[in-house]
Amino acid sequence: MTAQPRIQPQSAATDAPASGALTLSALSKRFAIEGRALPVLDGIDLSVRPGEFVSIVGASGCGKSTLLRLIVGLDTDYSGEIRLDGKRITGTSLDRGIVFQDHRLFPWMTLEENIGLALLNSEIPKEQRARIVCEHIALVNLTGFEKAYPHQLSGGMAQRAAIARALVTEPTLLLLDEPLGALDALTRVHVQTELQRIWMRQRSTVLMVTHDVEEALYLGDRVIVMAPNPGRIRRIVDVDLPHPRDRSSPVLHRLRDEILAELTGAPDPENLVRFPAQEPR
Amino acid sequence: MSARVIAFGTALLPPLLLVGAWQIASSTGLFPPQILVSPADVAGTIAELVRNGELGSHLGDSLFRLFWGFGIGALAGLAFGTALALSRLFEALFQPLFQAARQVPILAFIPMLVLLLGIEEGFKITVVAVAAFFPVALATFDGVRGIPKGWLEVARVYRTPFPSLLVRILIPATVPPVLTGLRLGLTRAWLVLVAAELLAADNGIGQMMEMGRQLFRIDVVLAGVIVSGLIGFALDRGVKLFERRYTRWRVA
């Protein structure tokens, strides 16, 4: 087991950003279903360093998407605490961006209008917005498609556009909710590489939910393995490899096999190891 | 281009066959000529009605009623549908009544409306407005309710200010279903107007047909049938073109 988290050197960067520290403490969430309270998240403790890329994997129904909805501020009904740079999260804010599994671009807006929409309520002066939108379109390699409508983009391009929209406000924390889940295998690999490149340039803190263990390992500095019913952290795996990474790295393959064995192994609640908040700091 | 010509020709074939069958039926004397006038005679009647201005005057009266009735009904439908979709209280109060009332055939309102409003312009405009109201209100309700939650979440994440949310997201998102509702409402309004004029009017395309029937001028009746059919078709097509133009962002 590589479940001994240790203090890890900031993988690719020495210029670690000063903001973007996320702390979850004793975070729990229940849904009321037919009068019964159904726990979906139970006692999540996690702290994410500024600029870190953390992947979250787990069986469906382990509350990983719910976790992101809480952090982005779309759902404020929870117990425990979520803090970003020490500030308690009470709602949505432009310092947190999110990419959903479906790109959620507005079909009647061009690519640049879709991305510009994210800046409508930002403090960036109006005359600079067009330039910033343009830069972010370039960041996701979509230059030339500024006037295209979403239906004219391929799935991978639309998802990259959604990433640009999430990044255009320069959030300190970027949340990715299975952003590549709807893409075909080849496009996924391509967009994963893109994501890594973008993150290495942007250096915001990233929290990515995925059901693809390889993707989680390829991109994440750490991989959080969650267990369902109720959703809780089962294990935290450090991926001590510098970025950009080589997909064929034996370390990644060994970790993948371990995590897959854990996720697909016979679920015996008696033997389920619950790792307490073993955090580097 | 040639594909479009072929499609046009294909669409034209059944009407031409129908006219041909009609011509044969009338010229072989299958029906007495007083009952089944030949298409050539009907064409002649239409030409005559156009020349002496009778058709234009009736059509003008009918379209005037359609314009006002549809305008009032559609605006009321838009407002009602929006309120029904946005306000829980409004929905609790009016949804059952609305759902029940829209099941009543519009023509069934006519006797009651005649008693209340007489047979003057007010009556016809009201009938048309009622006919337009229901499809528009229903489409608006569905359109506003049907805005995907995901889109509203995007607006919440980026804290889109309300005026922008309304203009850039809510209205564009409801335009396609509302336009479909308007189109349905417009053709429905036209049908009901012609029917109302058949029952009670001094002028208008429906009244022209009713007079034709009373005078046993079947050619005039058939001229009315053809003209009202063409008008309905043109109205539907017109809104469809408008729809296509303003919702071009939908998968082309």
UniProtKB/TrEMBL annotation, chain A:
The keyword Transport applies. Pfam families: ABC_tran. Signal peptide: none annotated. Gene3D superfamilies: P-loop containing nucleotide triphosphate hydrolases. InterPro entries: AAA+_ATPase, ABC_transporter-like_ATP-bd, ABC_transporter-like_CS, ABC_transporter_ATP-bind, P-loop_NTPase. GO terms for molecular function: ATP binding. Keywords: ATP-binding, Nucleotide-binding, Transport. It comes from the Bacteria. Residues 22-255 form the ABC transporter domain. Belongs to the ABC transporter superfamily. This is ABC transporter ATP-binding protein. It comes from Sphingomonas colocasiae.
From TrEMBL, chain B:
It comes from the Bacteria. It is found in: Cell membrane. Residues 59-239 form the ABC transmembrane type-1 domain. The chain crosses the membrane at residues 66-90, 102-119, 125-144, 165-186, 215-235. Its main location: membrane. It is a multi-pass membrane protein. Signal peptide: none annotated. The keyword Phosphoprotein does not apply. Keywords: Cell membrane, Membrane, Transmembrane, Transmembrane helix, Transport. Pfam families: BPD_transp_1. InterPro entries: MetI-like (IPR000515), MetI-like_sf (IPR035906). The keyword Transport applies. Belongs to the binding-protein-dependent transport system permease family. This is ABC transporter permease. It comes from Sphingomonas colocasiae. The lineage of its organism: Bacteria, Pseudomonadati, Pseudomonadota, Alphaproteobacteria, Sphingomonadales.
